[in-house]
């Protein structure tokens, strides 16, 4: 526990005021990250980004799973309650579009696409696997390099996209990832952009296999809530 060595009542009051001010600033500086899900989403494409993003220790950092329904069910049959609507994704600082067989139906719903108002001038926008089709449908990948799941490459290429066989492609504020574990690259990019390189390293270290990649050390996980719950 930190100690404040105050000299007199005035100094104590000053410290209290400063603490209250700093708390208010932290509360106001909210950073919203939205993961867009739907019925028939691939479990790992939602839950891996969800887990990684929730390890970030930054003022006002909040991660939400959003959809056009209050409950969505994964391809493995797991129903989950969502935290918000597609409008929340439109207001978020970063957006991750999940993947899964259920996305095919959503791509045929103009209302669903219209509700997902994305703006790379003020947002970091990324997709997992076939989620790149949503970005292409929104015109965010026109003429750009991008990646997607192998079975969707031809379809994405037909949408005026330069499709490459890479796990992660980032151009400006838009990024695409292919392969479930490429979420490490996508989420790492979002974390570094919004919370800094140190947070990115801490989060990725916490999930790397021991003795491989970035390695692993004994530092506590950045999120006290996660460390206690685990």
UniProtKB/TrEMBL annotation:
Residues 32-192 form the DJ-1/PfpI domain. InterPro entries: Class_I_gatase-like, DJ-1/PfpI, INH-QAR. GO terms for biological process: regulation of DNA-templated transcription. This is ThiJ/PfpI family protein. It comes from Sandaracinus amylolyticus.
């Amino acid at each position: 526990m930190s100690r404040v060595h105050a000299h007199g009542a005035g100094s104590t009051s000053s410290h209290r005021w400063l603490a209250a001010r700093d708390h208010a600033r932290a509360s106001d500086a909210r950073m919203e990250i939205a993961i867009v899900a739907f019925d028939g989403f691939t479990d790992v494409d939602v839950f891996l980004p969800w887990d990684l993003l929730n390890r970030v220790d930054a003022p006002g950092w909040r991660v939400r799973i959003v959809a056009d329904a209050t409950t969505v069910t994964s391809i493995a049959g797991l129903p989950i309650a969502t935290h918000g609507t597609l409008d929340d994704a439109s207001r978020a600082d970063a957006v991750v579009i999940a993947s899964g067989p259920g996305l095919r139906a959503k791509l045929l719903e103009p209302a669903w696409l219209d509700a997902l108002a994305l703006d790379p001038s003020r947002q970091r926008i990324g997709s997992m696997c076939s989620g790149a089709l949503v970005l292409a449908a929104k015109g965010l990948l026109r003429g750009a390099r991008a990646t997607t799941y192998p079975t969707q490459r031809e379809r994405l290429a037909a949408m005026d996209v330069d499709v490459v066989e890479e796990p992660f492609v980032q151009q400006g504020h838009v990024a695409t990832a292919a392969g479930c574990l490429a979420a490490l690259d996508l989420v790492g990019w979002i974390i570094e952009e919004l919370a800094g390189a140190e947070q990115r390293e801490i989060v990725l270290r916490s999930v790397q296999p021991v003795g491989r990649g970035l390695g692993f050390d004994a530092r506590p996980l950045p999120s006290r809530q996660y460390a206690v719950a685990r």
